[in-house]
Give the backbone structure.
Amino acid sequence: MKQHMMQHVKPRVRRSTLRLTPARIGIYAFLFGAALFFLLPLYVMLVTSVKTMEEIRLGNIFAFPLQVTFEPWRTAWLSACTGVACEGIRTGFWNSIAIVVPSTLLPILLGAMNGYALSFWRPRCANLLFGILMLGAFIPVQVMIFPLVRVLASLGLFSSLTGIVLIHTIFSMPVLTLLFRNYYATIPHELFQAARIDGGGFLRIFVQLMLPMSTPIIVVAAIMQVTGVWNDYILGLIFAGRENLPMTVQLNNVINTTTGTRLYNVNMAATILTSLVPLTLYFISGRWFVRGIAAGAVKG
């Protein structure tokens, strides 16, 4: 009888009530203000890019467009003047793609290999080499531009796609090596020793053991490298050459042109098109980025 009564007794479920304490209200107010601070410029850019110039001249930058038009987007992509040529920023987009892809794959591969070597194989003077790499991360880019111009010119790589990819690879090595070294430092050393006992060499252990375990940090490195290379302006302007100017340089030429009437809707559309790749990457891979950081990207 007692057991029968206990079966019919439903356990009480404690419901957590949301209490609006002053601290919670302050947190919500701060988050709302931060979101508004970052989203308001994007909103102004979006609504301006679909307005006509007649409506823009009215001065109501926060108002919704009375007549939505996508002609500024078409003009920005196909026929906006980026200097002498009026072919839009599509050429700069494909130039940026051609620069970003090798400038992401090659540095990640080299950074992973450097971090793997410094974590497990410990070559002679490994700490000195790592210190030199880290020192390179604190040297301003502007200090190294002129020597790099001379070096690339002597090698015949100045103003070429190969040259700009090489420059991005060089400047990314310190940070990527640090990321992968700290990540591999969290992996148990017994796995490496077991692979060595089984006869694995440097490349075999790296390809078959370390790389499959490196997905979180590879995602972090890819996000950092893609956004860094895509948003770069000064290196692309100096080292890419006229035929390989990235999208950021083309955008600067569109916005700062002094010929004709300044088309604010076209400028806003060109700006959004230029930032579309980093924004999409952050929205899609933001969760992976947090996981990679939590998995050891800043440990060590």
In short: The chain has a mean pLDDT of 85. The CA atoms of residues 95 and 180 lie 29 Å apart. The chain is about 70% helix and 0% strand.
